[in-house]
Design goal:
about 190 residues; mainly beta; eight-stranded antiparallel barrel; two-stranded antiparallel sheet; 1 helix; about 55% strand
Length: about 190
């Protein structure tokens, strides 16, 4: 029951913040206006998961949560960073890895409410080569190159939801390839 109360409080704060931003005149430079304007700061959380297949062993599933911050340098061109928590699960023990990412993206408006925001991402996983899996230690891939293209639905000004394909290639002693669908939720100011 308490979880539902906290979710209701968080939703109320988001709606109040969005309404406040609208009443203060969200248009013009300095981060206001439509998504992708120069000077905007975007705070979001990406999440992805798979119950399917990754080449990191026999059918290991994963869940990734990635809070992030992006900044639009100029119209539609963004740079950003994130912190990643990845949990792997399968037949053996469940393990976790942490990482930090740098990314660059370009927003493409399709309609007033829909855009696609493809991003190129480089991630450095920390500690992934010391955590155990079914076969011993996790593969030695510590650098991950990714492409992620979420389609965003701008629910209200300054708030969006999205989902899209994500392809990750882990580099190291062995090359790992993971494909999945990731989701995102965020806001901008």
């Amino acid at each position: 029951m308490k979880t539902h109360q906290w979710m209701a409080v968080a939703a109320g704060v988001m709606v109040a913040t969005s309404a406040s931003a609208q009443s203060e005149g969200g248009g013009g430079g300095g981060g206001g206006g439509s998504f992708g304007n120069a000077g905007q700061i975007v705070v979001s959380s990406d999440a992805s998961g798979s119950l399917g297949y990754t080449t990191e062993g026999p059918g290991i599933g994963y869940l990734t949560i990635e809070p992030s911050v992006d900044y639009f340098l100029k119209e539609n061109l963004s740079i950003g960073s994130s912190i990643r928590l990845r949990v792997l699960f399968g037949e053996g023990d469940t393990v976790a890895a942490f990482g930090i990412s740098a990314r660059v993206g370009y927003n493409i408006a399709l309609t007033d409410k829909i855009s696609v925001w493809p991003k190129g991402v480089v991630t450095l996983d920390v500690g992934d080569n010391i955590l155990g899996t079914q076969e011993g230690t996790l593969f030695a891939s510590t650098v991950i190159l990714e492409g992620y293209a979420p389609f965003l639905y701008h629910v209200t000004p300054h708030f969006f939801l999205g989902a899209g394909p994500r392809l990750a290639v882990g580099l190291g002693d062995d090359v790992d390839v993971t494909f999945g669908v990731a989701t995102t939720i965020g806001g901008y100011f």
